[in-house]
Amino acid sequence: MIPGTLEYAIHYIVEERLDVRIFDARYNNDDTGRKAINPKLLIKIILFGYSMGMISSRSLEKACQKHTTFMALACGRTPDHSTIAAFVSSIDLEIEELFTKILLICQEEGLLSGTHFSIDGCKLSSNASKEWSGTFADLKKKQEALQRKVKEAIQEHRKTDKKEKASVTDNERLAKRIKHLKQKADRIEKFLSENKPRIGSTGKEIQSNATDNESAKQATSHGVVQGYNANAMVDAKRQVVTHAQVFGSGSDTSNMQPMLEGAKQRLEKIGNKNPLKGKQISADTGYYSVENLKACEPMKVDAYVPDPQFRKRDIRFIDAERHRRSVDKRKEKYKSKKRFFSVEDFRYDDRTGRLICPAGNALYVRNRNFKTTDGYKAIAYQAPKTACRACHLRSKCLRNQITESRQVHIFSDHRPGSLTDAMRKKIDTPEGRHQYSKRIAIVEPVFGNIRSCKKMDRFTLRGKVKVNIQWLLYCMVHNIEKIMNYGRSFAVT
After folding, report:
1. Within a domain: residue 429?
2. I need a labelling partner for 99 at 20 to 30 A (CA). Which of 50, 166, 266, 280 fits?
């Protein structure tokens, strides 16, 4: 293997820098049974295979038989696909130590700055199908529908048997269809008997999945997928992944605490004291929630998490609309779908101190000390009933036509001690915009490398534990590539 190549870096790191004695308890069977394949060889095969987009164990098995580089990494051994698959699926305890050791090497090679970290997630399909998703009531209906199809197929099979010219092929086809439908129905019945309904954060039942119940439907830019939300926390200097974890929910509103805690523990293990205290943390609008902002306080991090409307308040994007390109000639994609008048359609009359509605009528002050349950203070205005009763704009102003007159609340103050208000104010400052703008250059290249260059577009395993192993392995490949390209010990002279 040639120095300066990824296969050389993987070989050197696994052979010289990783301590694989953690596998001894499971693979040291020299005295009894068949001699096991050295875990070092399996790790090298898997890491190099993942770097080339070979995620299935069968493709790795074939590569060990035909690909020269794989043969060299495996020292001529040819592990079969079941051995490789079993190894990947079972290293949930060892993978944490291996990942941390790679992170330690990154620090020794001068690849970590430890000053600014970015957190983000990408939603990837898992080895599960959306058609097996639904509430328990939905799955029960699906089971009943399958059972009806089984009865219909059996009746059709009996009719076919009575025909004198019935072919053997038709009978085999019907028998195979009946067996397939029965398997589906039994599968759902078994799932319903062995599991309980999943309850979401709101206390209501959410959809379960009979194939992989820890996965969830995830909304992506290319549609809804059944899978996992793979998160990564990345250091700013060389885009090294300091912590990686998958979640079985498409929402990031509660992911900050486990991501910060996981990164803190890893960085402490490699010798850093108070690794996150006072450090800058940036995340996109998906992480903007009270729960996430509260998680930043005990960690004492300098967080930059904008709200979904922050660009509308940024003067740099004031004319962004004119640069948009329509999807068709009528610009239907960006055509406003606004049906009712909002607060912005009402103007304030300085002379009278009243609000003027789009129809020209004045709204009087109903309550100057109005306060919402969330703590917002506002002035409540209301239109006279006589003005709204026969107004020609009534259908565009009142959502419920039973309502007698329009009410408008003008918020005049922020909630004292509000974390979300403080974050909005922080993001709107020049420093806040500058720090947040770093995020796209820190964490997005990591996902681009893993998904596009390494071809990691879906998980092949089921269950959160096994999927997390695959995600950590891919992040390890990414970090090893950083060591190869920027590490002081790996510089090719």
Report:
1. yes
2. 280
Whether residues 429 and 289 share a domain: the answer is yes
Q: Point out the least confidently predicted range of 257-261, 342-346, 437-441.
A: 342-346
Judge if 259 and 375 occupy the same domain. no
**104 in a structural domain:** yes
Alpha-carbon distance of 473 to 97, in angstroms, equals 12
Domain region containing 173: 136-196
Cα 284 to Cα 444: distance, rounded to the nearest angstrom: 11
**Which 8-state DSSP code applies to residue 458?**
B
Within 13 Å and on the Cβ side, how many CA atoms surround 417?
A: 3
Q: Is the pLDDT of residue 336 over 60?
A: no
H/E element holding 208?
Answer: strand 208-209
Mean pLDDT of 361-384: 87
**DSSP 8-state assignment for residue 421:** H
Same domain for 168 and 260? no
156 three-state secondary structure: helix
Counting other chains too, the contacts that 397-402 makes at CB distance below 8 Å and 24 or more residues apart are: 397/340, 397/341, 397/357, 397/358, 397/359, 398/340, 399/340
Question: For 353, how many CA atoms within 13 A lie in the half-sphere containing its CB?
Answer: 6
Query: Is there a single domain that holds both residue 11 and residue 104?
Result: yes
Q: Which of the four pLDDT bands, split at 50, 70 and 90, describes residue 116?
A: very high
82 Cβ contact list (under 8 Å, min separation 6): 57
- Looking at the structure of the chain, the number of domains it has is 4
- Tell me the pTM: 0.81
Other residues' Cβ atoms within 10 Å of the Cβ of residue 378: 17
Query: Is there a contact between 479 and 241 (Cβ–Cβ < 8 Å)?
Result: yes
Residue 203 binned pLDDT confidence (cut-offs 50, 70, 90) = confident
Mark whether 93 and 143 lie in a shared domain. no
Are both 434 and 287 inside the same structural domain? yes
Question: Following DSSP, what letter does each residue of 27-72 receive, concatenated?
Answer: H--SSSSSPPPPHHHHHHHHHHHHHTT--SHHHHHHHHHH-HHHHH
pLDDT digits (tens, 9 = 90+) for 36-86: 788 999 999 999 999 999 999 999 999 999 999 999 999 889 999 999 999
Q: What is the mean pLDDT of the chain?
A: 88
pLDDT at 493: 45
- Summarised one tens digit per residue, pLDDT across range 171-187 is 788 888 889 999 999 99
Same domain, 17 and 105: yes
What type of residue is 170? D
Q: Residue 425: helix, strand or coil by DSSP?
A: helix
Residue 244 β-bridge partners: 232
